[in-house]
Amino acid sequence: MNVFEAAVEHGGSPVAYASSAAVFGPVDLYPEPVLGPDARPMPATLYGAYKVANEQTAAVYAADHGLTSVGLRPFTVYGAGRDQGVTSQPTAAIYSAVRGEPYRVGYGGVTDFHYAPDVARAFIAAARVDLDSPAAPAVNLRGHVTSVDDFVDRVRRITGFDDLGVGTEPLPFAHALSTAGLEELLGRMEPTPLDNAIAETARILSTAL
After folding, report:
1. Please, how many CA atoms are within 13 Å of residue 188, restricted to the half-sphere of its CB?
2. Cβ atoms 58, 17 nearer than 8 A
3. Strand, helix or coil for residue 29
4. Where residue 102 falls among pLDDT bands split at 50, 70, 90?
5. Can you give the pLDDT at residue 157?
6. Are 195 and 154 contacting, i.e. CB atoms less than 8 angstroms apart?
């Protein structure tokens, strides 16, 4: 709200902010196999509930103050510098492999992986949108939907370090999210291939050793 208030006061429109795939609950709560950007939010975590509040706050500021904003909903962001939060664990697996230290990602299942530089480009594009009238769209980001097992297998192969594990319980968020409206809003953005992004992350992290 402080950011929105500052944007209203100083004319800082549009505002690009981070929402999250966590606005959606577990897969079994939804009859649809793929959720569009306007699917009903049913968060299963406090984090998701706060993100729903962010999106609703944005809509109120658009209606009451004419403030345009864009909310982006990544799921698992990985890459150098991603070292906080539950979904930072795949990055921690890369870092541990580079250091030669055993590591276990604490959850499993399927998720949508977003490389940090790709997400950064999306935020820059969102901060430059030019909409005809004040609005507050929130869109799902395009990444690579795959299992945590597959991601960690790629880390093993690329780094040559095998002592990495994966949990069994999935995170309580739907992972099959439609990117409808994303390209129209931000332009075409192809995600960096997983192997390329993991290898680049490993190279960057190795320089910090």
Report:
1. 1
2. yes
3. helix
4. very high
5. 98
6. yes
CB-side exposure of 209: number of CA atoms within 13 Å? 14
Q: Which residues pair with 78 in a beta bridge?
A: 115
φ, ψ of residue 48 to 5 degrees: the values are -65, -40
- CA quadruple 122, 34, 22, 96: dihedral, nearest 10: -70
Residue in the structure block whose two tokens are 């192997």: 195
pTM of the model: 0.93
pLDDT of residue 92: 97
DSSP code for 148: H
C-alpha gyration radius of the chain: 18
Polymer length of the chain: 209
Q: What is the pLDDT of residue 105?
A: 98
